[in-house]
Design goal:
This protein is of the alpha/beta class and 173 residues long. Helices cover 38% and strands 21% of the residues. α1 (7-18) packs across α5.
């Protein structure tokens, strides 16, 4: 089963921690952020602007905008267009950077969520990675009783209502 979460849910659940705003791409909330199939967790999901191995969530901070500022207008437009890969789910402009009008219009046209915040880009990346590592983590549900026997952990598993708790009580006594 593919583990995934929508941009809208991520935005809502992290709003109090990141204090961000949904700046553009209002129709991009249904884009899915998926766990890395390689088992690397959220390492390849969120990060600073990267064109070689594009992230699903691209974060633009002070350094990225300094780079863009050194480019002429045609190169800036080309670079921003290149940012939008097939796997892109959202763009985050961090560190209270001014959002270029071109970026806003591309996000609206391609329906990619564009979030803005005052926090530094490394801080935003850390918060998103931690959230996604929990939200996209593999999980297994099973019936069981966990107990401490002479400082050794013991897990008794089995079907529902077959006497695991009674067995645990007997083991302790």
């Amino acid at each position: 089963m593919i583990r995934q979460i929508t941009c809208e849910r991520m935005f809502t659940e992290l709003k109090s921690k990141v204090s961000w705003n949904w700046h553009a791409g209002k129709n991009g909330g249904n884009h899915l952020i998926t766990a890395e199939p390689t088992g690397q967790g959220t390492v390849g999901v969120v990060g600073h602007m990267n064109f070689i191995h594009p992230f699903q969530i691209q974060v633009l901070g002070q350094v990225e905008f300094e780079y863009l500022g050194k480019l002429n207008q045609a190169e800036q437009d080309q670079t921003l267009e290149q940012l939008f890969s097939d796997s892109l789910a959202a763009v985050v402009v961090a560190a209270s950077q001014t959002v270029p009008e071109r970026l806003t219009s591309i996000c609206d046209a391609k329906q990619i969520a564009l979030f803005t915040c005052a926090a530094s880009s490394p801080h935003v990346i850390d918060i998103i990675r931690l959230f996604l590592s929990r939200a996209l983590a593999e999980s297994t549900t099973m019936h069981g009783v966990f107990l401490d026997v002479l400082e050794i952990g013991v897990l008794i598993t089995g079907a529902s209502a077959i006497g695991k708790s009674e067995l645990a009580l007997e083991l302790i006594s």
